[in-house]
Amino acid sequence: xxxxxxxxxxxxxxxxxxxxxxxxxxxxxxxxxxxxxxxxxxxxxxxxxxxxxxxxxxxxxxxxxxxxxxxxxxxxxxxxxxxxxxxxxxxxxxxxxxxxxxxxxxxxxxxxxxxxxxxxxxxxxxxxxxxxxxxxxxxxxxxxxxxxxxxxxxxxxxxxxxxxxxxxxxxxxxxxxxxxxxxxxxxxxxxxxxxxxxxxxxxxxxxxxxxxxxxxxxxxxxxxxxxxxxxxxxxxxxxxxxxxxx
Length: 246
Known about the structure:
The protein is an alpha+beta fold. The chain contains 4 helices and 8 strands; from the N terminus they run αββαββαβαβββ. The protein has helices at residues 2-34, 69-89, 137-147, 163-187; strands spanning 39-51, 55-66, 97-109, 117-131, 151-158, 191-202, 213-214, 232-245. The strands form 2 sheets. Strands 3-4-2-5-7 form a 5-stranded antiparallel beta sheet. Strands 1-8-6 form a 3-stranded antiparallel beta sheet, with helices on one face. Strand 3 and strand 4 (117-131) form a beta hairpin. The chain is elongated and about 90 Å long. The chain starts with a helix and ends with a strand.
């Protein structure tokens, strides 16, 4: 009889032990289902600052031709030496002058139904010059052309230190972002609870050189070449997600 009672009690305890965790699990599932999904708002905005450039980069070239390859290179080197001297006179430091291309190509004359005939060789030497003082830009170009430059391939303007302008653009971007977030929240009966994510894009990118002109003779240059830098735009884009609350 005692054995039967013990068996009954053990069976009751095991049944109770299996029911309680199941009840807890069901209760937890129901609780999770009752948790509300937060209401979020995803927005983007931008801030833009315009400022005048304080530097320029210009690409200049010397083309020379001669019956022989050596002759073309020697003539080119002589002209480029004069160009470097003129740049120095114009106040451009050596560290701001960089060779950006040196090519030697054979030149042929083509006549129909005849094989190409070698006419000679052309040497091309290109330099990229960075001008930190824009008042020297026009006179520097004029001086180099008089010294033998016969190609002005392109010019680009830039900003030496864009960090202050980028920070100003960031301030504008955040101000616009928050104004937009508050407007949407108020219009839909919510308020901004917290910022969930924030990312940034854009910023200052040095522009690519813009083609200017090519010339064969220095006499085609005016007394002073006018060059205007205008204004540059620095833009910061921001993307954010906000959690809203009633």
